[in-house]
Design a protein that fits this description.
heterodimer; A: mainly beta; six-stranded mixed beta sheet; 9 strands; globular; B: mainly beta; seven-stranded mixed beta sheet
């Protein structure tokens, strides 16, 4: 059981907007930047968001991140079938003195 | 081409040891901190270890502390992960990942394709 929790799954229809949550503690999300990763089936993860809400170059602007207190969210707008993947949040934890990943959320595009 | 290529995975017996390598190309490895991350079959991502650019700072996940060591050879553009006392629970795809920011940012901006380690008798 990770110290950072995500819903196991979310689903939405193409064209709509979906959000994935990531809940933590003061020692991690509450005090450090959150990153989000997309992992397509059989592929290595790819960063979508870092430092809570910054988008790396090359990542579509349909992806956005936000944070409030000890929770963070990834939003994907204009859902496409190719967005179907596993999504992970990641953050440094001051108590564990290391990085931690959320358990991951499987996004199904209906 | 900017890339990371892991190697050294394979079948190892319980209790055994293994050293994984990650060869860097397309950028100067000495400019970056590096990490190892693993993923057990059908499971989520698990960060394992971090090493900064000059090897003065290392961090390890609590779950593997004491059994893993991380090292690097900047001159050879290579990152290493040595694992000891392996159990079936260490069966996973092991990824090396480049650090894209500060150590407290969990920002991995470049990943390798992974190498599979299977621990079984």
């Amino acid at each position: 059981q990770s110290v950072v929790t995500q819903p196991p799954s979310v689903s939405e229809v193409p064209g709509q907007r979906v959000t994935i949550s990531c809940h933590g503690r003061d020692s991690n999300i509450g005090n450090n930047g959150v990153a989000w990763y997309q992992q397509l089936p059989g592929k290595a993860p790819k960063v979508l968001i870092y430092s809570d809400d910054l988008v790396p170059s090359g990542v579509a602007d349909r992806f956005s991140g936000s944070k409030s207190g000890t929770s963070a969210s990834l939003a994907i707008s204009g859902l496409q079938s190719e967005d179907e993947a596993d999504y992970y949040c990641a953050v440094w934890d001051d108590t564990l003195n290391g990085r931690v990943f959320g358990g991951g959320t499987k996004l199904t595009v209906l | 081409e900017v890339q990371l290529v892991e190697s050294g995975g394979g079948l190892v017996q319980p209790g055994g040891s293994l050293t994984l390598s990650c060869e860097v190309s397309g950028f100067r490895m000495s400019d970056y901190s590096m990490n190892w991350v693993r993923q057990a079959p059908g499971r989520g991502l698990e960060w394992l270890a971090y090493i900064n650019s000059d090897t003065s700072t290392m961090f390890f996940a609590q779950s593997v502390r004491g059994r893993l060591s991380i090292s690097r050879d900047n001159a050879k553009n290579s990152l290493f992960l040595q694992m000891n006392s392996l159990t079936a629970g260490d069966t996973a795809v092991y990824y090396c990942a480049r650090d894209g920011g500060n150590f407290n940012d969990a920002f991995f901006d470049l990943w390798g394709q992974g190498t599979l380690v299977t621990v079984s008798s």
